[in-house]
Amino acid sequence: MRNEVDPAAAIAPQIYRLLRQAIVTLEYLPGQRLSEQEIGARFGVSRQPVREAFIKLSEAGLVRILPQRGTFVVRISMRDVANARFVREAVEVAVATTACAVAPPEALDRLGELIALQKEAAASDDQRLFLRYDEAFHRTLAEAVECASAWPFIEDVKAQMDRVRYLSLPAASPMSLLIDQHAEIVRAIACRDAQRAGDAMRLHLREILNSLPRLARAHPELFEDDEMPAHAREAASATFGRDAAPA
Amino acid sequence: MRNEVDPAAAIAPQIYRLLRQAIVTLEYLPGQRLSEQEIGARFGVSRQPVREAFIKLSEAGLVRILPQRGTFVVRISMRDVANARFVREAVEVAVATTACAVAPPEALDRLGELIALQKEAAASDDQRLFLRYDEAFHRTLAEAVECASAWPFIEDVKAQMDRVRYLSLPAASPMSLLIDQHAEIVRAIACRDAQRAGDAMRLHLREILNSLPRLARAHPELFEDDEMPAHAREAASATFGRDAAPA
DNA sequence: ATAACCATACTACCATACCAGTTAAGCGAG
DNA sequence: CTCGCTTAACTGGTATGGTAGTATGGTTAT
Protein backbone atom coordinates (compact mmCIF):
# COMPACT_ATOMS: atom_id res chain seq x y z
CA MET A 1 0.00 0.00 0.00
CA ARG A 2 3.00 2.25 -0.52
CA ASN A 3 1.46 3.53 -3.72
CA GLU A 4 0.94 7.23 -3.66
CA VAL A 5 -2.26 8.82 -4.76
CA ASP A 6 -2.47 10.83 -7.96
CA PRO A 7 -3.61 14.30 -6.93
CA ALA A 8 -4.75 15.04 -10.48
CA ALA A 9 -7.42 12.33 -10.45
CA ALA A 10 -10.30 11.96 -8.03
CA ILE A 11 -8.79 10.97 -4.72
CA ALA A 12 -11.66 9.20 -2.96
CA PRO A 13 -11.87 6.23 -5.37
CA GLN A 14 -8.11 5.78 -5.19
CA ILE A 15 -8.22 5.64 -1.41
CA TYR A 16 -11.04 3.14 -1.63
CA ARG A 17 -9.05 0.91 -3.96
CA LEU A 18 -5.95 1.03 -1.80
CA LEU A 19 -7.82 0.33 1.42
CA ARG A 20 -9.86 -2.43 -0.12
CA GLN A 21 -6.72 -4.07 -1.39
CA ALA A 22 -5.08 -3.74 2.01
CA ILE A 23 -8.04 -5.32 3.75
CA VAL A 24 -8.45 -8.12 1.24
CA THR A 25 -4.78 -9.04 1.44
CA LEU A 26 -5.03 -9.05 5.25
CA GLU A 27 -2.53 -6.23 5.54
CA TYR A 28 -5.24 -4.71 7.69
CA LEU A 29 -6.51 -7.40 10.02
CA PRO A 30 -10.06 -7.80 11.33
CA GLY A 31 -10.69 -5.69 14.39
CA GLN A 32 -8.12 -3.12 13.37
CA ARG A 33 -9.25 0.45 13.70
CA LEU A 34 -9.01 2.69 10.66
CA SER A 35 -8.65 6.34 11.51
CA GLU A 36 -9.74 8.93 8.98
CA GLN A 37 -7.06 11.19 10.35
CA GLU A 38 -4.27 8.64 10.16
CA ILE A 39 -5.11 7.35 6.67
CA GLY A 40 -5.45 10.89 5.39
CA ALA A 41 -2.09 11.84 6.82
CA ARG A 42 -0.43 8.77 5.38
CA PHE A 43 -1.51 9.65 1.84
CA GLY A 44 -1.25 13.38 2.27
CA VAL A 45 -4.94 14.07 1.79
CA SER A 46 -7.64 15.39 4.02
CA ARG A 47 -10.23 13.39 5.93
CA GLN A 48 -13.01 14.03 3.45
CA PRO A 49 -12.02 11.67 0.62
CA VAL A 50 -10.96 9.10 3.20
CA ARG A 51 -14.39 9.30 4.73
CA GLU A 52 -16.01 8.69 1.34
CA ALA A 53 -13.79 5.65 0.89
CA PHE A 54 -14.87 4.39 4.33
CA ILE A 55 -18.51 4.68 3.33
CA LYS A 56 -17.94 2.56 0.24
CA LEU A 57 -15.99 0.01 2.25
CA SER A 58 -18.84 -0.24 4.72
CA GLU A 59 -21.30 -0.81 1.87
CA ALA A 60 -19.08 -3.59 0.62
CA GLY A 61 -19.19 -5.06 4.12
CA LEU A 62 -15.46 -4.80 4.77
CA VAL A 63 -15.59 -2.26 7.58
CA ARG A 64 -18.09 -1.22 10.17
CA ILE A 65 -18.54 2.48 10.88
CA LEU A 66 -19.57 3.20 14.45
CA PRO A 67 -20.44 6.89 14.72
CA GLN A 68 -18.40 8.78 17.26
CA ARG A 69 -16.53 5.58 18.07
CA GLY A 70 -14.48 4.51 15.14
CA THR A 71 -14.25 2.53 11.92
CA PHE A 72 -13.10 -1.05 12.22
CA VAL A 73 -12.19 -3.82 9.83
CA VAL A 74 -14.86 -6.46 10.30
CA ARG A 75 -14.04 -10.07 10.98
CA ILE A 76 -14.71 -12.50 8.18
CA SER A 77 -18.28 -13.67 8.53
CA MET A 78 -19.02 -17.11 7.12
CA ARG A 79 -22.59 -15.97 6.75
CA ASP A 80 -21.68 -12.90 4.74
CA VAL A 81 -19.19 -14.81 2.62
CA ALA A 82 -21.76 -17.51 1.92
CA ASN A 83 -24.42 -14.95 1.05
CA ALA A 84 -22.07 -13.10 -1.26
CA ARG A 85 -21.19 -16.42 -2.85
CA PHE A 86 -24.87 -17.22 -3.27
CA VAL A 87 -25.50 -13.98 -5.12
CA ARG A 88 -22.40 -14.37 -7.22
CA GLU A 89 -23.26 -17.91 -8.18
CA ALA A 90 -26.74 -16.87 -9.19
CA VAL A 91 -25.52 -14.06 -11.40
CA GLU A 92 -22.54 -15.79 -12.95
CA VAL A 93 -24.35 -19.04 -13.65
CA ALA A 94 -26.93 -16.94 -15.47
CA VAL A 95 -24.11 -15.21 -17.32
CA ALA A 96 -22.61 -18.53 -18.34
CA THR A 97 -25.88 -20.03 -19.57
CA THR A 98 -26.79 -16.84 -21.40
CA ALA A 99 -23.37 -16.74 -22.98
CA CYS A 100 -24.24 -19.95 -24.76
CA ALA A 101 -26.97 -18.09 -26.61
CA VAL A 102 -25.41 -14.72 -27.26
CA ALA A 103 -21.62 -14.78 -26.80
CA PRO A 104 -19.74 -13.95 -30.00
CA PRO A 105 -16.84 -16.20 -31.01
CA GLU A 106 -14.32 -13.39 -30.45
CA ALA A 107 -15.24 -13.36 -26.79
CA LEU A 108 -14.42 -17.05 -26.55
CA ASP A 109 -11.04 -16.35 -28.09
CA ARG A 110 -10.33 -13.69 -25.49
CA LEU A 111 -11.34 -16.09 -22.73
CA GLY A 112 -8.97 -18.66 -24.17
CA GLU A 113 -6.16 -16.11 -24.13
CA LEU A 114 -6.84 -15.30 -20.50
CA ILE A 115 -6.66 -18.97 -19.59
CA ALA A 116 -3.30 -19.19 -21.35
CA LEU A 117 -2.05 -16.17 -19.43
CA GLN A 118 -3.31 -17.72 -16.25
CA LYS A 119 -1.36 -20.88 -16.97
CA GLU A 120 1.78 -18.81 -17.37
CA ALA A 121 1.14 -17.09 -14.06
CA ALA A 122 0.61 -20.46 -12.40
CA ALA A 123 3.80 -21.81 -13.97
CA SER A 124 5.85 -18.93 -12.59
CA ASP A 125 4.00 -19.26 -9.30
CA ASP A 126 2.90 -15.62 -9.38
CA GLN A 127 -0.21 -15.80 -7.25
CA ARG A 128 -1.08 -12.13 -7.42
CA LEU A 129 -0.98 -12.21 -11.19
CA PHE A 130 -2.99 -15.42 -11.14
CA LEU A 131 -5.76 -13.74 -9.21
CA ARG A 132 -5.68 -10.77 -11.56
CA TYR A 133 -6.26 -12.99 -14.57
CA ASP A 134 -8.91 -14.91 -12.69
CA GLU A 135 -10.81 -11.70 -12.15
CA ALA A 136 -10.28 -10.68 -15.75
CA PHE A 137 -11.73 -13.99 -16.90
CA HIS A 138 -14.97 -13.50 -15.04
CA ARG A 139 -15.25 -9.86 -16.05
CA THR A 140 -14.65 -10.68 -19.68
CA LEU A 141 -17.33 -13.32 -19.59
CA ALA A 142 -19.80 -10.83 -18.16
CA GLU A 143 -18.92 -8.37 -20.90
CA ALA A 144 -19.46 -11.08 -23.47
CA VAL A 145 -23.15 -11.21 -22.66
CA GLU A 146 -23.35 -7.39 -22.72
CA CYS A 147 -23.62 -7.26 -18.98
CA ALA A 148 -20.71 -4.91 -18.56
CA SER A 149 -22.85 -2.57 -16.51
CA ALA A 150 -23.62 -5.48 -14.19
CA TRP A 151 -19.97 -6.15 -13.44
CA PRO A 152 -19.49 -3.44 -10.82
CA PHE A 153 -22.27 -5.14 -8.97
CA ILE A 154 -20.47 -8.48 -9.00
CA GLU A 155 -17.28 -6.71 -8.02
CA ASP A 156 -18.88 -5.35 -4.87
CA VAL A 157 -20.18 -8.78 -3.94
CA LYS A 158 -16.79 -10.33 -4.63
CA ALA A 159 -15.08 -8.28 -1.92
CA GLN A 160 -16.28 -10.65 0.79
CA MET A 161 -14.95 -13.66 -1.08
CA ASP A 162 -11.64 -12.15 -2.09
CA ARG A 163 -10.41 -11.96 1.47
CA VAL A 164 -11.05 -15.65 1.94
CA ARG A 165 -9.42 -16.37 -1.36
CA TYR A 166 -6.30 -14.52 -0.35
CA LEU A 167 -6.27 -16.31 2.97
CA SER A 168 -6.27 -19.63 1.16
CA LEU A 169 -3.39 -18.68 -1.14
CA PRO A 170 -0.45 -19.73 1.04
CA ALA A 171 -1.91 -23.20 1.33
CA ALA A 172 -1.48 -25.58 -1.55
CA SER A 173 -3.74 -23.64 -3.89
CA PRO A 174 -5.01 -25.89 -6.61
CA MET A 175 -4.37 -23.31 -9.32
CA SER A 176 -4.41 -25.96 -12.00
CA LEU A 177 -7.83 -27.10 -10.83
CA LEU A 178 -9.25 -23.61 -11.20
CA ILE A 179 -7.72 -23.29 -14.64
CA ASP A 180 -9.27 -26.57 -15.68
CA GLN A 181 -12.62 -25.32 -14.45
CA HIS A 182 -12.27 -22.14 -16.47
CA ALA A 183 -11.41 -24.18 -19.51
CA GLU A 184 -14.41 -26.41 -19.02
CA ILE A 185 -16.68 -23.35 -18.82
CA VAL A 186 -15.32 -22.04 -22.10
CA ARG A 187 -15.67 -25.43 -23.76
CA ALA A 188 -19.28 -25.71 -22.66
CA ILE A 189 -20.06 -22.24 -23.99
CA ALA A 190 -18.32 -23.07 -27.24
CA CYS A 191 -20.60 -26.11 -27.51
CA ARG A 192 -23.57 -23.82 -26.77
CA ASP A 193 -24.51 -26.27 -24.04
CA ALA A 194 -26.25 -24.02 -21.52
CA GLN A 195 -26.84 -26.70 -18.93
CA ARG A 196 -23.23 -27.80 -18.96
CA ALA A 197 -21.93 -24.24 -18.86
CA GLY A 198 -24.11 -23.39 -15.89
CA ASP A 199 -23.09 -26.53 -14.05
CA ALA A 200 -19.42 -25.86 -14.72
CA MET A 201 -19.71 -22.31 -13.39
CA ARG A 202 -21.67 -23.48 -10.38
CA LEU A 203 -19.05 -26.08 -9.50
CA HIS A 204 -16.30 -23.49 -9.98
CA LEU A 205 -17.92 -20.97 -7.66
CA ARG A 206 -18.65 -23.55 -4.99
CA GLU A 207 -15.00 -24.42 -4.44
CA ILE A 208 -14.83 -21.81 -1.71
CA LEU A 209 -17.47 -23.67 0.27
CA ASN A 210 -15.03 -26.52 0.55
CA SER A 211 -12.22 -24.51 2.08
CA LEU A 212 -14.20 -21.98 4.10
CA PRO A 213 -14.97 -24.06 7.22
CA ARG A 214 -11.41 -25.34 7.34
CA LEU A 215 -10.01 -21.81 7.11
CA ALA A 216 -12.41 -20.61 9.79
CA ARG A 217 -11.16 -23.29 12.14
CA ALA A 218 -7.55 -22.60 11.28
CA HIS A 219 -7.82 -18.85 11.83
CA PRO A 220 -10.51 -18.34 14.46
CA GLU A 221 -9.17 -14.88 15.33
CA LEU A 222 -9.98 -13.66 11.82
CA PHE A 223 -13.51 -14.98 11.75
CA GLU A 224 -16.80 -13.91 13.18
CA ASP A 225 -18.31 -16.55 15.41
CA ASP A 226 -21.19 -17.43 13.12
CA GLU A 227 -22.28 -20.24 10.86
CA MET A 228 -23.03 -20.63 7.22
CA PRO A 229 -26.72 -20.18 6.36
CA ALA A 230 -28.81 -23.15 5.34
CA HIS A 231 -28.51 -22.47 1.61
CA ALA A 232 -24.73 -22.75 1.84
CA ARG A 233 -24.80 -26.05 3.71
CA GLU A 234 -27.31 -27.25 1.16
CA ALA A 235 -25.07 -26.21 -1.73
CA ALA A 236 -21.96 -27.71 -0.16
CA SER A 237 -23.49 -31.09 0.51
CA ALA A 238 -25.15 -31.16 -2.89
CA THR A 239 -21.81 -30.51 -4.58
CA PHE A 240 -19.22 -32.19 -2.41
CA GLY A 241 -21.24 -34.76 -0.50
CA ARG A 242 -22.61 -34.72 2.99
CA ASP A 243 -19.25 -34.62 4.73
CA ALA A 244 -17.86 -31.68 2.83
CA ALA A 245 -14.78 -29.87 4.07
CA PRO A 246 -13.31 -32.03 6.79
CA ALA A 247 -10.39 -30.69 8.78
CA MET B 1 -40.66 15.17 -1.20
CA ARG B 2 -41.92 17.62 1.37
CA ASN B 3 -40.72 15.36 4.15
CA GLU B 4 -38.28 17.10 6.37
CA VAL B 5 -35.07 15.49 7.47
CA ASP B 6 -34.53 14.38 11.02
CA PRO B 7 -31.46 16.27 12.25
CA ALA B 8 -30.95 13.74 15.03
CA ALA B 9 -30.26 10.86 12.64
CA ALA B 10 -27.59 10.69 9.96
CA ILE B 11 -28.61 13.13 7.25
CA ALA B 12 -26.87 11.76 4.18
CA PRO B 13 -28.88 8.50 3.97
CA GLN B 14 -32.10 10.41 4.44
CA ILE B 15 -31.24 12.76 1.57
CA TYR B 16 -30.38 9.73 -0.54
CA ARG B 17 -33.74 8.13 0.18
CA LEU B 18 -35.67 11.30 -0.57
CA LEU B 19 -33.82 12.00 -3.80
CA ARG B 20 -34.06 8.41 -4.94
CA GLN B 21 -37.78 8.45 -4.33
CA ALA B 22 -38.11 11.74 -6.21
CA ILE B 23 -36.21 10.40 -9.19
CA VAL B 24 -37.99 7.06 -9.26
CA THR B 25 -41.40 8.74 -9.14
CA LEU B 26 -40.33 11.06 -11.95
CA GLU B 27 -40.69 14.09 -9.77
CA TYR B 28 -37.18 14.80 -10.98
CA LEU B 29 -37.11 14.19 -14.71
CA PRO B 30 -34.17 12.90 -16.74
CA GLY B 31 -31.80 15.66 -17.74
CA GLN B 32 -32.70 17.76 -14.74
CA ARG B 33 -29.77 19.23 -12.92
CA LEU B 34 -29.40 18.58 -9.21
CA SER B 35 -27.50 21.28 -7.39
CA GLU B 36 -25.78 20.45 -4.10
CA GLN B 37 -26.44 23.99 -3.04
CA GLU B 38 -30.12 23.99 -3.92
CA ILE B 39 -30.94 20.59 -2.45
CA GLY B 40 -29.06 21.45 0.70
CA ALA B 41 -30.92 24.72 1.06
CA ARG B 42 -34.27 23.04 0.49
CA PHE B 43 -33.76 20.61 3.35
CA GLY B 44 -31.86 23.00 5.55
CA VAL B 45 -28.63 21.02 5.50
CA SER B 46 -25.17 21.70 4.18
CA ARG B 47 -23.75 20.56 0.88
CA GLN B 48 -21.67 17.75 2.32
CA PRO B 49 -24.37 15.18 3.10
CA VAL B 50 -26.04 16.08 -0.18
CA ARG B 51 -22.83 15.30 -1.96
CA GLU B 52 -22.64 11.89 -0.30
CA ALA B 53 -26.20 11.21 -1.39
CA PHE B 54 -25.25 12.17 -4.95
CA ILE B 55 -22.41 9.67 -4.89
CA LYS B 56 -24.75 6.86 -3.87
CA LEU B 57 -27.26 7.90 -6.51
CA SER B 58 -24.53 7.79 -9.13
CA GLU B 59 -23.53 4.29 -8.01
CA ALA B 60 -27.15 3.24 -8.36
CA GLY B 61 -27.05 4.64 -11.88
CA LEU B 62 -29.73 7.25 -11.32
CA VAL B 63 -27.59 10.34 -11.75
CA ARG B 64 -24.41 11.21 -13.56
CA ILE B 65 -21.84 13.35 -11.82
CA LEU B 66 -19.78 15.47 -14.18
CA PRO B 67 -16.93 17.09 -12.24
CA GLN B 68 -16.93 20.86 -12.37
CA ARG B 69 -20.08 20.73 -14.49
CA GLY B 70 -22.96 19.40 -12.51
CA THR B 71 -24.99 16.41 -11.47
CA PHE B 72 -27.82 15.37 -13.74
CA VAL B 73 -30.63 12.85 -13.59
CA VAL B 74 -29.85 10.29 -16.26
CA ARG B 75 -32.33 9.26 -18.90
CA ILE B 76 -33.78 5.79 -18.57
CA SER B 77 -31.50 3.41 -20.42
CA MET B 78 -33.14 0.28 -21.78
CA ARG B 79 -29.74 -1.34 -21.63
CA ASP B 80 -29.24 -0.51 -17.97
CA VAL B 81 -32.78 -1.53 -17.07
CA ALA B 82 -32.38 -4.82 -18.91
CA ASN B 83 -29.06 -5.51 -17.24
CA ALA B 84 -30.45 -4.72 -13.82
CA ARG B 85 -33.36 -7.01 -14.58
CA PHE B 86 -30.96 -9.74 -15.66
CA VAL B 87 -29.11 -9.58 -12.37
CA ARG B 88 -32.29 -9.44 -10.37
CA GLU B 89 -33.79 -12.40 -12.18
CA ALA B 90 -30.66 -14.43 -11.59
CA VAL B 91 -30.61 -13.71 -7.87
CA GLU B 92 -34.31 -13.97 -7.16
CA VAL B 93 -34.82 -17.13 -9.18
CA ALA B 94 -32.03 -18.64 -7.11
CA VAL B 95 -33.76 -17.36 -3.99
CA ALA B 96 -37.03 -18.93 -5.04
CA THR B 97 -35.53 -22.31 -5.88
CA THR B 98 -33.47 -22.33 -2.71
CA ALA B 99 -36.52 -21.39 -0.68
CA CYS B 100 -38.02 -24.73 -1.64
CA ALA B 101 -35.23 -26.45 0.24
CA VAL B 102 -34.77 -24.23 3.25
CA ALA B 103 -37.72 -21.86 3.76
CA PRO B 104 -39.51 -22.46 7.08
CA PRO B 105 -43.32 -22.70 7.05
CA GLU B 106 -43.65 -19.45 9.03
CA ALA B 107 -42.04 -17.59 6.16
CA LEU B 108 -44.67 -18.91 3.80
CA ASP B 109 -47.34 -17.66 6.16
CA ARG B 110 -45.84 -14.20 6.16
CA LEU B 111 -45.69 -14.22 2.37
CA GLY B 112 -49.35 -15.17 2.32
CA GLU B 113 -50.18 -12.27 4.58
CA LEU B 114 -48.32 -9.87 2.32
CA ILE B 115 -50.30 -11.13 -0.67
CA ALA B 116 -53.54 -10.52 1.24
CA LEU B 117 -52.40 -6.99 2.09
CA GLN B 118 -51.50 -6.46 -1.52
CA LYS B 119 -54.98 -7.52 -2.57
CA GLU B 120 -56.43 -4.93 -0.21
CA ALA B 121 -54.19 -2.24 -1.67
CA ALA B 122 -55.25 -3.24 -5.16
CA ALA B 123 -58.92 -3.21 -4.17
CA SER B 124 -58.65 0.32 -2.81
CA ASP B 125 -56.57 1.28 -5.86
CA ASP B 126 -53.71 2.50 -3.71
CA GLN B 127 -50.82 2.07 -6.10
CA ARG B 128 -48.13 3.41 -3.82
CA LEU B 129 -49.15 0.99 -1.09
CA PHE B 130 -49.31 -1.78 -3.67
CA LEU B 131 -45.69 -1.18 -4.65
CA ARG B 132 -44.67 -1.09 -0.99
CA TYR B 133 -46.14 -4.52 -0.37
CA ASP B 134 -44.64 -5.78 -3.60
CA GLU B 135 -41.20 -4.80 -2.38
CA ALA B 136 -41.92 -6.29 1.04
CA PHE B 137 -42.86 -9.58 -0.60
CA HIS B 138 -39.57 -9.91 -2.40
CA ARG B 139 -37.56 -8.80 0.59
CA THR B 140 -39.34 -11.25 2.87
CA LEU B 141 -38.65 -14.07 0.46
CA ALA B 142 -34.97 -13.20 0.45
CA GLU B 143 -34.95 -13.20 4.24
CA ALA B 144 -36.62 -16.58 4.24
CA VAL B 145 -33.52 -18.16 2.70
CA GLU B 146 -31.28 -16.28 5.16
CA CYS B 147 -30.11 -13.96 2.45
CA ALA B 148 -31.04 -10.84 4.34
CA SER B 149 -27.56 -9.46 3.90
CA ALA B 150 -27.95 -9.89 0.16
CA TRP B 151 -31.07 -7.77 -0.05
CA PRO B 152 -29.31 -4.39 -0.09
CA PHE B 153 -27.66 -5.48 -3.31
CA ILE B 154 -30.96 -6.34 -4.89
CA GLU B 155 -32.31 -3.04 -3.68
CA ASP B 156 -29.57 -1.16 -5.47
CA VAL B 157 -30.19 -3.04 -8.67
CA LYS B 158 -33.91 -2.49 -8.35
CA ALA B 159 -33.56 1.29 -8.62
CA GLN B 160 -33.26 1.11 -12.39
CA MET B 161 -36.40 -0.96 -12.66
CA ASP B 162 -38.46 1.02 -10.17
CA ARG B 163 -38.51 4.11 -12.34
CA VAL B 164 -39.91 2.12 -15.23
CA ARG B 165 -42.38 0.49 -12.91
CA TYR B 166 -43.63 3.84 -11.71
CA LEU B 167 -43.87 5.05 -15.28
CA SER B 168 -46.13 2.13 -16.11
CA LEU B 169 -48.42 2.73 -13.16
CA PRO B 170 -50.85 5.23 -14.70
CA ALA B 171 -51.54 2.77 -17.49
CA ALA B 172 -53.86 -0.10 -16.88
CA SER B 173 -51.56 -1.84 -14.44
CA PRO B 174 -52.43 -5.48 -14.17
CA MET B 175 -52.15 -5.52 -10.41
CA SER B 176 -54.22 -8.67 -10.18
CA LEU B 177 -51.83 -10.40 -12.56
CA LEU B 178 -48.86 -9.59 -10.38
CA ILE B 179 -50.71 -10.80 -7.30
CA ASP B 180 -51.51 -14.06 -9.04
CA GLN B 181 -47.86 -14.47 -9.91
CA HIS B 182 -46.84 -13.89 -6.30
CA ALA B 183 -49.39 -16.45 -5.20
CA GLU B 184 -48.08 -18.98 -7.68
CA ILE B 185 -44.55 -18.47 -6.41
CA VAL B 186 -45.68 -19.17 -2.85
CA ARG B 187 -47.67 -22.21 -3.92
CA ALA B 188 -44.68 -23.64 -5.75
CA ILE B 189 -42.45 -23.11 -2.73
CA ALA B 190 -45.06 -24.69 -0.48
CA CYS B 191 -44.99 -27.73 -2.77
CA ARG B 192 -41.18 -27.69 -2.53
CA ASP B 193 -41.13 -27.74 -6.32
CA ALA B 194 -37.92 -25.89 -7.10
CA GLN B 195 -38.30 -25.96 -10.86
CA ARG B 196 -41.81 -24.55 -10.71
CA ALA B 197 -40.85 -21.88 -8.17
CA GLY B 198 -37.95 -20.72 -10.30
CA ASP B 199 -40.07 -20.62 -13.43
CA ALA B 200 -42.78 -18.66 -11.64
CA MET B 201 -40.28 -16.10 -10.40
CA ARG B 202 -38.67 -15.87 -13.80
CA LEU B 203 -41.98 -15.21 -15.49
CA HIS B 204 -42.86 -12.65 -12.84
CA LEU B 205 -39.63 -10.70 -13.27
CA ARG B 206 -39.84 -10.74 -17.05
CA GLU B 207 -43.11 -8.82 -17.17
CA ILE B 208 -41.16 -5.59 -17.43
CA LEU B 209 -39.61 -6.75 -20.69
CA ASN B 210 -43.08 -6.72 -22.15
CA SER B 211 -43.85 -3.12 -21.31
CA LEU B 212 -40.39 -1.58 -21.61
CA PRO B 213 -40.19 -1.08 -25.39
CA ARG B 214 -43.72 0.30 -25.48
CA LEU B 215 -42.95 2.77 -22.70
CA ALA B 216 -39.75 3.81 -24.43
CA ARG B 217 -41.68 4.62 -27.59
CA ALA B 218 -44.41 6.42 -25.65
CA HIS B 219 -41.97 8.61 -23.70
CA PRO B 220 -38.92 9.07 -25.91
CA GLU B 221 -37.89 12.21 -24.01
CA LEU B 222 -37.37 10.14 -20.86
CA PHE B 223 -35.27 7.44 -22.48
CA GLU B 224 -31.73 7.13 -23.61
CA ASP B 225 -31.45 6.34 -27.28
CA ASP B 226 -30.21 2.80 -26.87
CA GLU B 227 -31.40 -0.75 -27.28
CA MET B 228 -31.86 -3.75 -25.06
CA PRO B 229 -28.89 -6.10 -25.04
CA ALA B 230 -29.09 -9.48 -26.66
CA HIS B 231 -29.82 -11.35 -23.46
CA ALA B 232 -32.95 -9.26 -22.92
CA ARG B 233 -34.28 -9.83 -26.43
CA GLU B 234 -33.54 -13.51 -25.94
CA ALA B 235 -35.42 -13.58 -22.63
CA ALA B 236 -38.38 -11.63 -24.03
CA SER B 237 -38.86 -13.84 -27.05
CA ALA B 238 -38.37 -16.99 -24.99
CA THR B 239 -41.06 -15.88 -22.57
CA PHE B 240 -43.58 -13.93 -24.63
CA GLY B 241 -42.95 -15.20 -28.14
CA ARG B 242 -41.02 -13.69 -30.98
CA ASP B 243 -43.25 -10.64 -31.41
CA ALA B 244 -43.16 -9.56 -27.80
CA ALA B 245 -44.31 -6.10 -26.79
CA PRO B 246 -46.10 -4.73 -29.83
CA ALA B 247 -47.17 -1.10 -29.79
C1' DA C 1 -22.05 39.66 -39.54
C1' DT C 2 -19.18 36.49 -37.60
C1' DA C 3 -15.81 34.53 -34.95
C1' DA C 4 -12.52 34.68 -31.22
C1' DC C 5 -11.83 36.05 -26.62
C1' DC C 6 -12.35 37.20 -21.95
C1' DA C 7 -14.88 38.07 -17.63
C1' DT C 8 -18.20 36.04 -14.78
C1' DA C 9 -20.86 32.82 -12.53
C1' DC C 10 -21.48 28.72 -11.75
C1' DT C 11 -19.89 23.51 -10.68
C1' DA C 12 -17.71 19.46 -8.02
C1' DC C 13 -13.89 18.34 -5.26
C1' DC C 14 -10.85 18.78 -1.50
C1' DA C 15 -9.39 21.02 2.83
C1' DT C 16 -10.48 22.91 7.12
C1' DA C 17 -13.33 24.12 11.13
C1' DC C 18 -16.79 23.02 14.32
C1' DC C 19 -19.98 20.06 16.82
C1' DA C 20 -21.97 16.27 19.44
C1' DG C 21 -21.28 11.92 21.28
C1' DT C 22 -18.13 8.13 23.01
C1' DT C 23 -14.25 6.47 25.55
C1' DA C 24 -11.04 6.12 28.95
C1' DA C 25 -8.05 7.77 32.14
C1' DG C 26 -7.37 10.28 36.37
C1' DC C 27 -8.83 12.12 40.48
C1' DG C 28 -11.41 12.19 44.73
C1' DA C 29 -14.62 10.30 48.04
C1' DG C 30 -15.85 6.44 50.76
C1' DC D 1 -8.13 -0.34 47.60
C1' DT D 2 -12.48 0.31 45.19
C1' DC D 3 -16.03 2.68 43.15
C1' DG D 4 -17.95 6.75 40.89
C1' DC D 5 -17.61 11.10 38.86
C1' DT D 6 -15.27 14.50 36.11
C1' DT D 7 -12.76 15.77 32.22
C1' DA D 8 -9.83 15.66 28.42
C1' DA D 9 -8.79 13.37 24.18
C1' DC D 10 -10.42 11.10 20.83
C1' DT D 11 -14.24 9.69 17.09
C1' DG D 12 -17.46 10.43 12.95
C1' DG D 13 -20.91 13.81 11.08
C1' DT D 14 -21.84 18.22 9.44
C1' DA D 15 -20.85 22.98 8.03
C1' DT D 16 -18.04 26.13 5.63
C1' DG D 17 -14.15 27.89 2.97
C1' DG D 18 -10.96 27.61 -0.94
C1' DT D 19 -9.50 25.98 -5.62
C1' DA D 20 -9.47 24.44 -10.26
C1' DG D 21 -12.14 23.62 -14.10
C1' DT D 22 -16.34 24.38 -17.16
C1' DA D 23 -20.27 26.72 -19.44
C1' DT D 24 -22.01 31.18 -20.80
C1' DG D 25 -22.78 35.73 -22.28
C1' DG D 26 -21.05 39.97 -23.62
C1' DT D 27 -17.37 42.36 -25.96
C1' DT D 28 -14.01 43.13 -29.31
C1' DA D 29 -11.41 42.33 -33.43
C1' DT D 30 -11.69 40.72 -38.03
Can you give me a brief rundown of this structure?
Chain A is built from 11 helices and 3 strands. Chain A is mainly alpha-helical and 247 residues long. A 3-stranded antiparallel β-sheet of chain A has the order 1-3-2.
Outline the fold blueprint.
The structure is a homodimer of 247-residue chains.
Chain A lengths: L10 H14 L8 E2 L1 H8 L3 H13 L3 E4 L3 E4 L4 H25 L2 H19 L3 H18 L6 H18 L6 H16 L3 H12 L1 H12 L11 H11 L7
Antiparallel strand pairs in A: 1-3, 2-3
The structure holds a DNA duplex (30 and 30 nucleotides).
Characterization of the model:
The structure is a homodimer. The first copy, chain A, has about 250 residues and is mainly α. Chain A folds into two domains: about 10-75, Arc Repressor Mutant, subunit A (Orthogonal Bundle); about 80-240, Up-down Bundle (Four Helix Bundle (Hemerythrin (Met), subunit A)), CATH 1.20.120. The first copy, chain A, is built from eleven helices and three strands, in the order αβααββαααααααα. Chain A has a three-stranded antiparallel beta sheet. In chain A, a hairpin with a 3-residue loop joins β2 (about 65) and β3 (about 70-75). In chain A, α5 packs antiparallel against α6 (about 125-145). The longest helix of chain A has 25 residues, at about 80-100. Chain A is globular. The interface of A and B includes residues 10, 145 and 149 of A. The structure holds a DNA duplex (30 and 30 nucleotides). Chains A, B: This is DNA-binding transcriptional regulator, GntR family. Chains A, B: Keywords: DNA-binding, Transcription, Transcription regulation. Chains A, B: It holds the Pfam family FCD. Chains A, B: InterPro entries: GntR_C, TF_FadR/GntR_C, Tscrpt_reg_HTH_GntR, WH-like_DNA-bd_sf, WH_DNA-bd_sf. Chains A, B: GO terms for molecular function: DNA binding.
